[in-house]
Amino acid sequence: MATSKITFIKDIDPVNSDFTIKVKVLKLWTLNSKFNENEKYSIEMILLDEQGSLIQANVFQNLFYKFEKSLREGSVYEFTTLSVAKHNPHPKSTIFSDLPNKITFIRETELKESLNFPKNVFGLSFVDFQKINSKVIPTQRSVDVIGVVVSRTTIIPSQKKDKQRIHLELKNLDGVLLKVTLWGHFANKVSDYLDTHNTDDCVVIIVQFAKINDYRGNIGVASYYDVTTVFINTDIDEIKQFREKLAKDNESSQLSGTISLIRTKHVSLNDDFLKNNEVKTIYKSKEPVQVEEFIIVGTIIGIRQDKPWCYQSCPDCHVKAVEIPDCNEDVKLSLLKFLSQGFFF
Known about the structure:
The protein folds into 3 domains: 9-114, CATH 2.40.50.140; 129-261, CATH 2.40.50.140; 269-339, no CATH class. 15% of the residues lie in helices and 30% in strands. The chain has helices at 64-67, 129-133, 184-196, 237-248, 269-275, 329-339; strands at residues 20-32, 40-48, 54-60, 76-80, 83-86, 101-104, 110-114, 143-152, 165-171, 177-183, 204-215, 218-222, 229-232, 260-261, 278-281, 294-297. It has a 7-stranded mixed beta sheet with strand order 5-6-3-2-1-4-7, with no helix packed on it. Strands 8-9-10-12-11 form a 5-stranded mixed β-barrel. The chain has a two-stranded parallel sheet with strand order 15-16. The protein is globular. This is Replication protein A 70 kDa DNA-binding subunit B/D first OB fold domain-containing protein.
């Protein structure tokens, strides 16, 4: 591949595919097919240029043979001849870049590795805690946050390693608190650090590419699979600058290294299911007709062998699709009204 003039990410022209970018593969992961969970559908990437700009990129399955073995997270490449189009993510997808476009590798795309890239560029763009807490930022948009750890839980265990978690509270320079949940190996990383280091000094944490959580009105952020990056008291410019501002703050003395422990009550899945939900008989569950969460207790008296062990449902909201038999319009309307209440048998 001949040496070409490098185009920065913010200067990419979507109409022209004949350009060269020099970028670091900041994050790399795969998406599986929605039809076959064991089949890879695409390679997804977050690319970072020397100016700190980010853009999402992907390689579809038909070109795995050309790029899959060459691409490595953390490596720097020059890419030439790429397709650029407007990014139209699924409503449930997470967006990792402010740019409206996304790059797709095509058959004509070429790459070569490069070694000359600044080490202190991470593409961090911090979001104010108050904007997250006040629900100003869409939950679809990933965020970068930085703050001092003021409280924590112990590791909340799970039989699956990626389901264990730790809850933290971070405080920013304005004194605003933010709830943070870290899952899997991120939880272990932070817990191990806090358990093995002297925290008399403030522990500053950055969570990059965090997912906003709005669970029953409680706002916070959480790690997002392996896409997230967590920095703990590392020697990078962003943490140095945060510490310098913290030292100059008149209230910085209140932000001591003391981290309070949040007490948690570990509840087993069995207890959570049985103790936190009302139990009803089948008869009592029919009235009144309203949306509720409860457990139905009954005895299985037989299993129909003529029905499959699955049913059709909407892939987005997971509501069961029910075929209405031939009947008059009044019956259909009554049945639809009944089904809209969430009663499916």
